[in-house]
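Structure ticket #2291
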Amino acid sequence: MIEQIYNYFTIEMLYYWVNLGVLPFWLILIFFPQSHLCRFFVTSIFPIFILSTAYIFVLYKSYLNSYDFIDNFSLYLGLENLSNLFSNNSYLIIFWIHFIAINLFTGGWIVKDAQKLSINKILIIIPLIVTYLIGPVGLFVYWLIRIFHAKSINLYD
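Resolution: structure written out below.
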């Protein structure tokens, strides 16, 4: 049974499952940010646990396939080295899971922060969608909304 699961989750299949699996979390964040469902399943440790499990699974599969983890540090040596790393599917899916997890965490933080400041949930729909697609830009858009809503600039909050 475990071997069947292991063989089913190829890098390509894991990519599809991660992309489809994260969509319900984002839909709940966008449409039901104040629900108990959002609090317990999206802005908690639950999605990070799931994505971490996928991350560890890919690391384990990579280890079994004799992936050279030390070579990952060459990404700091130049853009060409980074490009070479992205040509490896194992590294690419590790990066992608990392990207998905950070964006989802950021979306959860935006929802919690907006609730703390009593920002209307309609106002945070655009930053959440942008965060889903291009994380840092969505966070910046939310920060602009936050400044106008709070009528003060806080660079460290």
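Closing remark: Residues 2-66+97-150 form one domain.
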